[in-house]
Design brief:
The longest helix is centred in the last third of the chain and has 19 residues, at about 85-100. The radius of gyration is 13 Å and the shape is globular. The chain has helices at about 20-30, 35-45, 50-60, 65-75, 85-100. It is mainly α.
Length: about 110
Amino acid sequence: MRKRHCGYGVRESYAGYGVTRDRAKELLKECRSGKHAALLQSAARQAEPDIAKWIVLSVMEGKSLHDMEIKWELGEADVMPCCRNSFYAYRKFALAILNDMLAGKEAAQDGKL
């Protein structure tokens, strides 16, 4: 797992990333309706490239880590290379990056918005 970077921390709340709980719920709802798909993928890659596909699946389809673990156990999907706490921390971080992107802030580490 990466060291603390750009506000990232395993125990960080949404507020620690500058996102209110209500805004996080709103972002999740918008993403599940199909909005922001390309931006979410970019935000997930910035948060943690190794698990970006799982972050996108979780946010866009409302899949919990437990839902994805069942597929791993059945051999229908690859096993995620991080633990539960890290996964949810990176997911929060990705939503914070997405929120910054939508607000027009310079959130991208690699200069892409």
